[in-house]
Design goal:
alpha+beta; 4 helices; 3-stranded antiparallel beta sheet; 117 residues
Length: 117
């Protein structure tokens, strides 16, 4: 899913995977099963802040910040897609596609909107 030209000097990488996957869970989507209140208790605090924003959410934030996506790509792992089949995902992620939920990284090259007009 490429649109435009890639410039590694400006490219950003957003890590979308479960950062606890190396704790023996073996996939990057396990964290999507917890309800928001429970996730908030463990991961939205002064010691550890860890969001669960998905690819779509990051793209919406980029748009709201007044930036333009010149190029984008994602890393989509089959392991995550397979794990989603047996995972009851929290209602907070209802309406998102399996590809959006399973994406482990988003790569973007951005420019300000004012520069492109």
């Amino acid at each position: 899913m490429t649109s435009g030209c890639f410039s590694p000097k400006r490219a950003s990488r957003c890590a979308l995977h479960d950062h606890f996957q190396n704790a023996g869970l073996g996939n990057g989507v396990n964290f999507l099963r917890y309800p928001e209140w429970l996730w908030g208790f463990f991961c939205y605090n002064a010691i550890l802040y860890y969001n669960r924003l998905r690819l779509t959410h990051f793209l919406e934030l980029i748009e709201k910040a007044g930036l333009h996506v010149i190029w984008q790509d994602r890393e989509l792992r089959q392991l995550n897609l397979d794990a989603l089949r047996g995972l009851k995902v929290d209602v907070a992620f209802a309406g998102l596609s399996d590809e959006d939920l399973a994406a482990s990284h988003l790569y973007v090259d951005l420019a300000s909107r004012s520069r492109n007009r």
